TrEMBL record:
Keywords: DNA damage, DNA repair, DNA-directed DNA polymerase, Exonuclease, Hydrolase, Nuclease, Nucleotidyltransferase, Transferase
EC number: 2.7.7.7
Class of this enzyme: transferase
Protein name per the record: DNA-directed DNA polymerase
GO MF annotation: an example: phosphoric ester hydrolase activity
Residue intervals of the DNA-directed DNA polymerase X domain: 1-313
UniProt cross-references to InterPro entries, sorted A to Z: DNA-dir_DNA_pol_X (IPR002054), DNA_pol_lamdba_lyase_dom_sf (IPR027421), DNA_Pol_thumb_sf (IPR037160), DNA_pol_X_beta-like (IPR002008), HHH_MUS81 (IPR010996), NT_sf (IPR043519), PHP_dom (IPR004013), PHP_phosphatase (IPR050243)
Entry's Gene Ontology BP terms: DNA repair
This protein's GO CC annotations: cytosol
Name of encoding gene: polX
Lineage top rank: taxon: Bacteria
Domain (Polymerase/histidinol phosphatase N-terminal): residue spans on this chain: 330-409
Record's catalysed reaction(s): DNA(n) + a 2'-deoxyribonucleoside 5'-triphosphate = DNA(n+1) + diphosphate
Length: 562
C-alpha cells in the first residue's frame, strides 16, 4: 500500500468510528495519524520507525504497520462488519458527516438514504436539537442529486461526453493509446458510468492534465492507476480513467469492456488451457504473463475471432458465426436546409462522399410538418433540380431524391400518389398524435404499407431512450406487413432513438425483412451516427443481405424501381 492509500484507510476508520458514535479521542487519534503522514515529506518505505513521527501513537502505528505488511487492517474490517453499508451511504449526502449521521441513527433510527428521505418528508428531522426545517430541505435536495447520479445514463447523454473526452485524450502528449470501455463500448442503451482505458508512461502528468482539462464536478479518487471523477454537464456524469502500460493495454481494455458474463466465459476458456486471464495479461502455467498488442491478438491467442464489443454478452458470441464486418455504402434518411436540417444539399453530398459511400437519399420532411418547414410538392420539384445538378457534377456518386413523408393522424398520407411517383425514394413516418390507440396507429402504418410508392418506414416505434415509450405499434404485425408488401424497416441510428430495438431487429431478421441503418442526420456532423447504428445492429446479428446499406447502388436501384 502506498502512503495515500494508508491515509485514506486511516480517514475511513475515523469516519466509521464517528458514525458508530465512538469515543472522540479515539477518532481524533486516527485523524491526527492521517494528518501526520500527510505532512511528512517521505514516502512510506523511507520511514524507518513509524511511531517516531509526531502524531502517530502506539495504536495507530500498529494499524499502519499492519497496512504496510498485509494491505488491510483488522480494525477497519471489524468496523465494516459492524456498521451497515446503507448507513455509510448517507455520507454521500452533502452536509452530512459522521457526527450528524450518528445522531440521526441514534435518535431517529435513520440507517439509509431511503429512511432519511422519509424522515425529512415527515418533518421529523427538525425535532432534533441543532437541525431545522432548512436542514430537511437541504438533505432532500442532496438526496435528489445523489439519486440522479446513481441513475443510469442514456446512450445519447453519454455519447457527446465520450466524444469530448476522446478529443481531450487525443491531444495529450502523455497518452499512447486510449479507448472508451464498459457498457458504452458495448453500445448498451444506458450505462451507469463511463470507463476509459489509457496507456501512458506518465500517469501523474496525465492525471493532472485530465483534472485540468475536464469540467470536474467532484474528484472521487485520483491515484496513479485510476482517476474517478464526476463531470459537470446536463447530467452529472461519473467517469473512470484507468492508466495502464502499453503492454497491459489490450488485456485491460478487454477486461474493462466486459460484459461480466463474457469475461466469465473467457476465463473458463483460459482455465481449460491451464491459463489465467487477469486485467493485465494472460498468466501461463509456469507463472509467466503474456501480453498482446491488440484485442484481436488476445482473442486469437484463444483461437477466437475478434468478437465485437456489442455482442460480448457471454452467450451467443461463443456459439454462433459472428456477423461479418459490413461495408456501409449508403445512408438513406437525412434532412437539409430545405426543411429543418442545418447543411445544404451539396454539403451533405460532399460529406457523404468523404465517408466513402456510393449513394444516399435526401429525405426532407413533407408539408404536414410545417414547424420543420416541410416541403410542398412544388418545393419538392425545385429540390430535385438541385439534387440532379449535384449528381451531374459528381458522376461517381448518386443522391436519390426522396421524402420523409408524414403518415397523418387520420391514416392518410401527406402526398398523393402522383407526387410520390416522381420521387426516387419514399420514407413514411409518424410524427404526430403519438397517443392514439394501437388500432389507430396500426391503421396509419397500414396506409403506408399498402401504398406501392412507399419504400421504407422510418423510426417504426418513435421511442426516445429513457424518455418516451413510443407509439402503440404491434411489431409482429408491422413486420408481417413489411414482408408481405416488400418494405424496408429502419434502424434509426440517432442515439436518441435506436429503433428498431434489438428485440425488434431480431424479429425482423427472423422474418427476412430488409433493414436500413439510417442517421436521420440534420447536419453533416450527425452523419457520424452511422457507427452507433452499425454497432447496435451487431447485437441482433443482422446478416449482410438484409442490411440495405451494404447493397450496391445497382441492387438498391433495382429495389426502389420495382
Ligand atoms: Zn422522422
Ligand atoms: Zn427524419
Amino acid at each position: 500500500m502506498n502512503k495515500k492509500q494508508i491515509i485514506n484507510v486511516l480517514e475511513d476508520i475515523a469516519l466509521y468510528m464517528e458514525v458508530k458514535g465512538e469515543n472522540p479521542f479515539k477518532i481524533s487519534a486516527y485523524r491526527k495519524a492521517a494528518a501526520a503522514l500527510e505532512g511528512d515529506v517521505r514516502s512510506i518505505t523511507e520511514i524507518e520507525d513509524i511511531t517516531k513521527i509526531k502524531g502517530i501513537g502506539k495504536g495507530t502505528g500498529e494499524v499502519i504497520t499492519e497496512l504496510m505488511t498485509t494491505g488491510e487492517t483488522s480494525v477497519l474490517i471489524a468496523l465494516q462488519a459492524e456498521i451497515p453499508a446503507s448507513l455509510m451511504a448517507l455520507l454521500k449526502i452533502p452536509g452530512l458527516g459522521g457526527k450528524r449521521i450518528a445522531k440521526l441513527y441514534k435518535e431517529l433510527g435513520i440507517d439509509s438514504i431511503e429512511s432519511l428521505k422519509q424522515a425529512c418528508e415527515a418533518g421529523q428531522i427538525r425535532t432534533l436539537a441543532g437541525f431545522g426545517a432548512k436542514t430537511e430541505e437541504k438533505y432532500l435536495a442532496g438526496i435528489a442529486e445523489v439519486e440522479t447520479r446513481a441513475d443510469r445514463h442514456a446512450i445519447w447523454r453519454i455519447e457527446p461526453v465520450v466524444n469530448h473526452i476522446n478529443q481531450v485524450l487525443a491531444t495529450s502528449e502523455f497518452v499512447n493509446q486510449y479507448s472508451v470501455a464498459g457498457s458504452y463500448r458495448r453500445t448498451n442503451e444506458t450505462s451507469k458510468d463511463i470507463d476509459f482505458i489509457v496507456a501512458t508512461a506518465e500517469p501523474v502528468k496525465l492525471r493532472n492534465y485530465l483534472l485540468e482539462k475536464l469540467a470536474v464536478h467532484e474528484i472521487v479518487a485520483a491515484g496513479d492507476t485510476k482517476v474517478s471523477v464526476v463531470l459537470d454537464g446536463e447530467e452529472l456524469m461519473p467517469v473512470d480513467f484507468r492508466f495502464v502500460t502499453d503492454k497491459q493495454y489490450a488485456t485491460a481494455l478487454h477486461h474493462f469492456t466486459g460484459s461480466k458474463d463474457h469475461n466469465v466465459r473467457m476465463r473458463q476458456i483460459a482455465k481449460e488451457r491451464g491459463e489465467k486471464i487477469s486485467e493485465y495479461g494472460v498468466e501461463q502455467a509456469d507463472g509467466t504473463v503474456i501480453t498482446f498488442k491488440t484485442e484481436a491478438d488476445f482473442f486469437a491467442h484463444f483461437d477466437l475471432p475478434f468478437i465485437p464489443p456489442a455482442i460480448r454478452t457471454g452467450r451467443e458470441e461463443f456459439e454462433r458465426e459472428l456477423p461479418k464486418q459490413a461495408t456501409i455504402k449508403a445512408d438513406l434518411h437525412m434532412h437539409t436546409t430545405w426543411s429543418d436540417g442545418a447543411s445544404a444539399i451539396h454539403e451533405m453530398g460532399d460529406a457523404l462522399q468523404q465517408k466513402g459511400y456510393t449513394h444516399a437519399a435526401i429525405t426532407d420532411h413533407s408539408q404536414f410538418l410545417a414547424v420543420a418547414n416541410g416541403l410542398t410538392p412544388a418545393r419538392l420539384r425545385q429540390q430535385r433540380l438541385e439534387i440532379e445538378a449535384y449528381n451531374k457534377a459528381h458522376p461517381n456518386f448518386r443522391l436519390f431524391a426522396g421524402t420523409e413523408m408524414d403518415i397523418l393522424p387520420d391514416a392518410t398520407l401527406d402526398f398523393e400518389d402522383d407526387v410520390l411517383r416522381e420521387l426516387d425514394f419514399v420514407i413514411a413516418a409518424i410524427h404526430s398524435s403519438f397517443n392514439q390507440t394501437e388500432e389507430q396507429i396500426m391503421a396509419r402504418m397500414y396506409a403506408a404499407m399498402k401504398n406501392p410508392y412507399v419504400h421504407m418506414i422510418a423510426h417504426p416505434t418513435g421511442r426516445v431512450i429513457e424518455k418516451r415509450e413510443g407509439y402503440a405499434v404491434n411489431m409482429s404485425q408491422l413486420i408481417a406487413w413489411a414482408k408481405q408488401y416488400g418494405k424496408i424497416l429502419e434502424l434509426n441510428a440517432n442515439p436518441y432513438r435506436l429503433d428498431l430495438c434489438e428485440e425488434h431487429l431480431r424479429m425482423a431478421v427472423e422474418a427476412g425483412v430488409p433493414i436500413a441503418i439510417n442517421t436521420d442526420a440534420h447536419s453533416i456532423e450527425q452523419l457520424a451516427y452511422m457507427s452507433v447504428g452499425e454497432r447496435y445492429a451487431q447485437k441482433a446479428y443482422v446478416p449482410q443481405e438484409l442490411l440495405v446499406n451494404t447493397w450496391t447502388r445497382e441492387q438498391f436501384e433495382q429495389f426502389i424501381m420495382r
